[in-house]
Amino acid sequence: MIDVIGTDAGAPGSLPPGAQLLLEQAHLLAAPKRLLPALQQWRNSEPNQRCIASDNPIALSEELLALGSDQRAVVLASGDPLWFGIGRILIERLGRERLRFHPSPSSLQLAFARLGRPWQDAQWLSLHGRDPAPLAQRLQQRPSALAVLTDPSRGGVDEVRQSLRSSGLESAYALWLCESLGHSSERVQRLAPCQATPSDLHPLHLVVLLAEAQAAPPANQLPLFGLEDGVFLQHSDRPGLMTKREVRIQLLAELNLPARGVLWDLGAGTGSVGLEALRLRPQLQLLCIEQRSGGSSLIAANAARLGVQPAAVLEGDAMEELPNLPAALAAPDRVLIGGGGRKRRALLEQVIQCMAPEGDVVIPLATLEALAELRPVLEAAKYSVKVSQQQAWRGQPLADGTRLAPMNPVLILKGSAPRQNGA
Fold it and tell me: Are residues 139 and 233 in the same domain?
């Protein structure tokens, strides 16, 4: 039997009695080179035991395979051997039936313990030998807590900081740098965006990003157009579920907003498109409808952040809410349909029945099937139809350079009601 025991920096003396007994009974002991001096001193030169380094898992596997069936071995490993540790390789080369694992706290557990924060909601990501693009994608989901296992050879914490900057989220997260966890040189510190990375950074480090409640920026200091995604509050359980800035800009252009009139934002989500439209055209009467629970309060909070006031914000099914609108909002000049799901065809047909003369409806879509379903509805109503695709890329760090990471493409279907002059 081969016992793989997770350790901390105080091993072997800090191991529980049961683990120490396994060490005493083993014919072969394997440990990282940094632990060998302490291990050899602890075992007091026991002549019947061999002690070897475990830093090369392949060579270690060969040594373990050569053991007799009646011989026992102990492999010491940092933290949890089955979490980015030596466990995976040993299982692949030796077989699960020959191994028994005894984990200690992983670096991830130690990091959250040092921060004194529950971590059942935390996400994690490894950048070891990997392109950093997945980090930027994960950040767009706005997790409440994200632990990043860094790769010092690719930039380590600086790579994480660059991803935060390029995503426009530096102020949205507190960045905690956790170095040499469990060792005498352990250091845990928060780095402000303007603070330089320590020149004596330990190569064994990870980063924990904790979302911070962002104070609403003064509305008069926001740009008139093209607000950053981070300006908007989002659903905590579905972070990142919003119309991204690049798509929002295109939708606002397609809406061809009039100076006055009624704008419907159906399936409004966070309200980002309709609320930004209201900043551009303050005289518009904006109606937002969002079916998701808590949607109306979220949209109202975002409206307050932007310094605008929708005419109405409703929470419920759009098809059920539209027949009960007050007369002032019942005939829209512009409509954005951002939701609908399986009811989208029926919803579009209902919208067309309500539309003011010479109105426009704009629909962002994710699939060709949705486009094929809805375009005939507009054509049957004698609407002129325009189809386009919005595709954007955002710069993301790649080693010492920058790569362009693609965002999801969005199809945009626009229908314009017949003009009175026949155009």
Answer: no
